[in-house]
What does this fold into?
Amino acid sequence: MIGAGQHIVIAGAGSVGCYVGGCLALAGRKVTLLARPRIERALRDGGLRVSDLDGRDRLADADAIAASTDPAVLTGADIVLVTVKSGATEDMARLIAKHARADATVVSLQNGIDNAARLKALVAGRPVLAGMVPFNVVQPADGEQPLHVHRASEGTVLVQVGMPGLAELLSVEGCAVAAHPDIQGVLWGKLLFNLNNALVALSDLPLAQELAERRWRLVLARQIREALAAMKAGGIRPVAAAGSAPPALLPFILSLPDWLFGRLARRLLAIDPQARSSMWDDFQHRRPTEIEALQGAVLDLAKRTGTAAPAIERTVALVRAAERAGAGPPKLGPDAFA
It folds into this structure.
């Protein structure tokens, strides 16, 4: 049973990790952020500013935010929230196996389908739960002091059932958390929306602007149709987040004229005007993307089920080309996906 006072370590405190960790710290939870040196220095020097789409704008000063670059901080963790990119899952799992207590609970709050399973294979018997973060978090400017993370969209974080008290401990102001009985269905449902990450990155458009243009939505709709066909062939039933349209209706809704889409999809368009995607941020900083965990997961399923996914294959090829070029977002238009 999870109770109050337990020590939470955020393993890989980037944008999402800093936001979740900041909300937990502001709510009085005992939390430590395991972060890269740049993040750790910024937190030590100026604390953490946490804002959101609902109008909250709060500061956790440096004394209220414990941060370290030393994975030995995992030794004191009752709960480890893993927020690294999918490509770093195995590396973080090995650090958890080396440093964390044998009874520490590990929770994956990562994009993709199989991160919890990959963690479980390497953390030496520790309990592992999957989770899903529905919202977008941005860092408005490099070098801004205090370090600023902003939740640019809405939604409730969902975690796998099986650990009583976990959701209640993690659910705090600015970051609602609930347990869900079908977390794999939830992850597949989130993956459908995450197929848009690559389009935002390749277009260099803010998310709200990209979704407001029907030509871009048609590109996304094609990919979602391919993903749904592969899921159906594989016996997978994606689950919609609370308040979202049923997954099967997404291609139809995305294909509507702009004026009608704007009326029917107000919740989907409730996004900060400057929000982009984590893959866009990867292009900006010349980092490897999570394309294998997103479009790549659908391609793997399509191959196993014998279904076609040409639109998704094209997107993967464009992302790979942009990664090789190393010149940031390539500013492509919808015609590049034809």
